[in-house]
Amino acid sequence: MSAFVAEEGRFERLRGEAETLLAQYPDPEVRPPLFGIPIGVKDIFHVAGFTTRAGSKLPPEILQGPEAESVTLLKKVGALILGNTVTTEFAYFGPGPTCNPHNIEHTPGGSSSGSAAAVAAGMCPLTLGTQTIGSIVRPASFCGVVGYKPTYDRISRAGVIPLSPSLDHIGLFTVDVAGAQLAASLLCRDWTRSAEIRDLKKPVLGIPEGPYLNRASTEMLEHFRATCRKLAKAGYELRPVNAMPDFDAIYERHFLITNAEAARVHQEWFPRFRDLYHFKTVEKLEAGRAVSDEALAQALGEREKFSDTITRLMDEHQIDLWISPSAVGPAPKGLDSTGDPVMNLPWSQAGLPSINLPSGRSSDGLPLGLQLTARWQDDEELFEWAIDFEKLLAITNNENAFH
Questions:
Q1: Partners of 358 in the β-ladder
Q2: Counting Cβ atoms within 10 Å, is residue 83 exposed (0-12), middle (13-18) or buried (19+)?
Q3: pTM of the full structure
Q4: Residue 141 near residue 147 (C-beta atoms within 8 A)
Q5: How far apart are CA 145 and CA 116, in angstroms?
Q6: Edge-to-edge strand ranges of the sheet holding 146-149
Q7: How many CA atoms lie within 13 A of 246 on its CB side?
Q8: Which residues pair with 64 in a beta bridge?
Q9: What is the spatial distance between Cα 347 and Cα 367, in angstroms, rounded to a whole number?
Q10: pLDDT tens-digit series, residues 261-310
């Protein structure tokens, strides 16, 4: 699958670390929650003892930094680092070598390609990834796993090479919802335990009708509508809502922000190492360099208004969750593109928590996903509801779960 960055002596290192961990916790009764669990870490996270390359050909020494806070947290609760997972170059559009475990002729998605594929292939039960546009939910959909993007900045971004700081989210991939919930409870700030969530009612589901939803393919829309009928039959209330009539402007704003902020992140590296960047990254950075500070500030202000608009729509229609396709369709054939992230873009822009649930198969047997999006900071409720959705969608692929 080429999910992991090559590492000489990987398993000798792991055996040594496992022995040290076992010596530290000989009593099974007091072992931490992720004791001995191997995890993959997207190769833009700094990990002590590892070289961060960010999927690029730039000199590695200029990219290094202190260990990511998210990685440190997982290590403190017993996780073992299986290795760095392959990413697109700097978490943008320049693809890596990773294949989709369901069909190696198809992309696993990006930019968290290796993280999604590693979980789908059963190589490890938990991986870390990031989403700026659609880099968790989309590859999770393509690879048939659970992918969780939290409320913006609920998981620390410290120690991760940024792409667009205003839009970057740290998230994760697992086999099932319970595993993702456990990992989220260890990583998210101010997590409310399940036992403290009282009287959680069945959520009212909003369908964002209009130009956004129409971006999905015919096959995906048919699957999505069939899933909606299944939910209605199970007793969920679904409310179609005319949403995002200005979706073209939302789309263009997102890429303006991403390109402009990425250009500023790379403002020292790019002039020195331009010839070492992937041509797709060069194209985006050049576009970002042309964006003025004033235009970027205006776009960021409009993004805040958009987030408020989405919340207001939820209030007006008394919606608890938005449901939508996780991708425009199944994973495209070929590895030159990681697929279209458009179905995830508005929820990333609004900073709202989202999760992909595997929901079926395409006509050629590739995974399809359902995207659930909750209100700002309602990550805990999102998980409680997602557990019921998972049962309804008959997800049974839990042989690698770690909870």
A1: 369
A2: buried
A3: 0.96
A4: yes
A5: 7
A6: 80-85, 38-42, 126-131, 169-174, 146-149, 354-361, 367-373, 321-325, 204-209, 237-242
A7: 11
A8: none
A9: 21
A10: 999 999 999 999 999 999 999 999 999 999 999 999 999 999 999 999 99
